Amino acid sequence: MTQRTCLVVDDSLVVRKAARRIIEGFGFAVREAKDGQEALDACRAQLPDGVLLDWNMPVMDGITFLRAARAEFGPDHPRIVLCTTEAEIARIIEALSAGAQEYVMKPFDADIIRDKFTQVGLLEEVA
After folding, report:
1. Model pLDDT for residues 110-119, shown as the tens digit of each residue
2. Per UniProt, what is one Pfam family of this protein (predicted)?
3. What's the rounded Cα separation, in Å, for the pair 61 and 110?
């Protein structure tokens, strides 16, 4: 079985490093991008299994990336979990209708990421 891959997209180096540590702990090979444009380029180079995507970033924000990725790669791959401080229901609905499979609030921890990755099919359920 090939190693699963995840792209962590956030303009904060601290958040990228924290997410990378958590996701590598689940056995993923992790790449990082600091904005949506860099993430789109990374997906074109090698489509990851999953993307942990920040909403508010310079150059290209998460929603713009999400719409572009869905238009280019289809509705199901990669699995995209939007990660943000945006808590309004309208924003969550916008993210899900743009093509995110799940939604994580910052700050997050390993348990939250594990739950979301399991829900979107990136990780197996643990009995």
Report:
1. 999 999 999 9
2. Response_reg
3. 24
